[in-house]
Amino acid sequence: MTVTISIGSGKGGTGKSTITSNLALLLARTGKRVVIADLDLGGADIHIMFGEFEPAKRLTDFLLRKTNDLNELRLTLENFPSIQIIAGTGDTLQTANMSYQEKQRLFRALSQVDTDVLLIDVGAGASYHALDFFMHSDIQICATLPEPTAIMDFYTFLQLATIRKALGSFLSSSDVSANLKNHSFNSLNDVLELAENTQEGARQIAQQSLRYFHPLLITNRVVPHSKLNKMRLQKLAAKYLGISLPDLGDIPEDPMVPESTKTFLPVCEYAPNSEAAQALVKIGERLNKIIDLFISKRQKA
Question: b/e map of 218-238 (b: 16 or more CB within 10 Å)?
């Protein structure tokens, strides 16, 4: 029973790949089989984080239909045998112009990856590809920095993700879907109002689709006196987006993180006693409990 976890961010430079690689290591240490699928279409670099510079197989092979099975593209890491990687493509024509049908083919293939935990490293920003990859998972994690511009981009990312989720709650052949496709939206409330005006009860359908959308928040590179007001951010998400935003933890600014990157090792391996590594361990423990709880609930359903 695979649990898929997507990791996204509103902008680049939040340390998303660093977080992904370390969480993969920490989850693997619990005995779980872990696969990282690098879907960062503009800057695939997870393989580099582990010192793999020229993967023999990449996601490009799947997109070019050289294979239909992503399991064939898995690269086992020599120093971390419990972690495998599906290396990304980089910014190529095949990924930039991925059609709806190709994206659905990719989603079907992702659902067939044989592992305990599938970590999906999503590209930064709020493109349709990034939003769809982010939402196509059991558990979502958002990474941000404690800076005003990063928080603004993060909130915009969340807002667009909820709009995308709400829009996806209607069948493509429905009158509501047809009407919504002809409009651009600046807020979730705009979507709900137009949906309800098109068909009575549509607002409730859209709101129901967000019921289990609880993206987990990680704040990276935190320094003393950081000005991120998490409580206010959570209240805004609840009031205007209709979602909760559980806090998974903070990672402090730590010189050991860039040092570990230079050695192509996760900081939890390179400097396990560093402040960043210790914070990541706590985050990993919380995430592992969430995964186990999710599995337990799914088995009872």
Answer: bbbbbeeeeebeeeebbeebe
